[in-house]
Amino acid sequence: MSKLILNNEDLLEMLDELMRDPVEFWNDFYDEREKEIPFFKNKPDENLVGYFKNAVMKPGHVLELGSGPGRNAIYFAQQDCEVDAVDLSSKSLEWAKERASAQGLDINFIRGNVFELDIEEGFYDIVYDSGCFHHIAPHRRMSYLNLLQKALKPNGYFALTCFVEGGELGGSELSDLDVYKQRNLNGGLGFTEEKLKAIFAGFEVIEIRPMKEKDEDDQEFGLRGLWTALFRKKAE
After folding, report:
1. What's the CATH code of the domain at 69?
2. Number of domains in the chain
């Protein structure tokens, strides 16, 4: 017998089932570590490094959403932050733990769905997302915003790196409706500056800019085709 939709959570879970299985996909994605994937290299995002160099961010409690093989979580830990790093993929977290252990860093890696986290309200100074948000289907955006509002302290920072719509990395130009018609995000949704401002209208915009491109031998990660954005939770 098909499950009846009796509440909002039933609806969200049913829409989740329309999309691909993210756990299986991401475990396969991270299983082959030698692939020429730019963000497989152990380098922090250039915007993140800039936030600390310019004293915008300071040591505190950090929640990273979609932490992958740990490159940004490691940088946060190196800045004396206490880090909870969440990812669906056990394969990516194995890799991240190996990297952190090699540097003697204590990071709390959590395997799980970001929408099922049991977190204390107003606990985090920073929520960081580099490449998770553009893989989230439109019906989960409100869940994502609720997570940010719950996790962050008043005046806490939310930083985001995501695909540019129609950019060099292929940020999909699908409308929200077409996502469900095709039952696919086409590799990840792209956004415009206007769309980001609309989605995160409940936050103060500090900065939205294209990511700076970095050379192969640079110690920071940076590619064209990505937005970097920094928001602040409004004080109550």
Report:
1. 3.40.50.150
2. 1
Pairing of strands 61-65, 124-130: parallel
pLDDT tens per residue, range 115-155: 999 999 999 999 999 999 999 999 999 999 999 999 999 99
Q: Quick check: is 213 in a domain?
A: yes
Residue written as tokens 């959590």? 110
Tell how far CA 133 is from the center of its chain: 5
**Which residues 6+ apart lie within 8 Å of 187 measured at CB?**
170, 172
Summarize the confidence of residues 150-162 as an average pLDDT.
Answer: 98
Establish if 168 belongs to a structural domain. yes
Contact 47, 135 (CB under 8 A): no
Which of 16, 5, 117 lies closest to 63, judged by CA?
117
Largest CA distance in the chain: 57
